[in-house]
Amino acid sequence: MNKKTPVLLAAILTPAAAAIALSWWVAQHSLAGLEWHTRLVPVVATTPRGLTHLFRFYKYSWPPQAPVPPLGLKNLPAGLEHLPITEKKALFLRVILPLAIAANNRIRRERSYLRRILPRLNDVPGDHLPQRVLRLARKYQVSQSLGTAAGRIRLLRRCDTVPLGLILAQAAKESGWGTSKFARGANNLFGIWTWKPEAGVVPRGRAEGATHLVRVYPDLAHSVEDYLYNLNVGFAYRRFRARRALMRATAKPLDPLILAATLVAYSQHRILYTSRVIQLIRNNKLERLGKPRLSPTLMSPGAHNTTLLRAAAFGSSPNNRG
Question: Which domain holds residue 135?
């Protein structure tokens, strides 16, 4: 992340100034470069209505009928709970989808690199491994030697994507379609806990003697990335990774319904929880999403259109982790 990159909130700018800012970003930061598929334009929205207008300008509907505009909403706007249920769902899913695609794309890029390089590392001593491989092994908490088949298999099993339908369904379930206290106040879409006092807040109704906190994130993108990371390295989700690896080995697409059934450890409600996630996927046809992709370009709205916008921002992606 470029710490000098500002984010502009259209609500505190004149329409013309907001248009100039977004136009400047589009001119200076073409998304057509090598990593456009992992970069998002950070957006700050003040109201659901403004966000709806922004999506409408970019012809971004639900379900998506075209490449998804690379808009990365920083925080959920207040007031989603007052929308009609169908409108609330469509707005929430459009918020999360580009975040999920970009996060998966980053993992896909890492996995592609590993699949190319790991077969060449048979019996290579650890001190001769490429630095990028070592960084990825540390990131995915793989301690076995990558000179062995077991180490390479473990790393590839952990460095893998998650079906978009499952990401969207769990985000909706855990955040109450973006209306929960922690989704709004902590950018926590997936109910993830932490035991670090500096990284979380005490949940209401925490049992006496419990020490867990609800994790606080700087923005929604970091919440999505951390959720994927937890599924990829967490001990509780080894069944998920094993089933995903089997799908890979048999050249089958990653099925969100089958993989959702493996996440009994995600909630204390166990099978009841996974059955509700599966039902949510089916009810909203999230298993039929296919493979939506991010658009490589983002058109500037122009000054005369910014009266429709309540959100506009510019800058490089804040969530581009090595």
Answer: 10-308
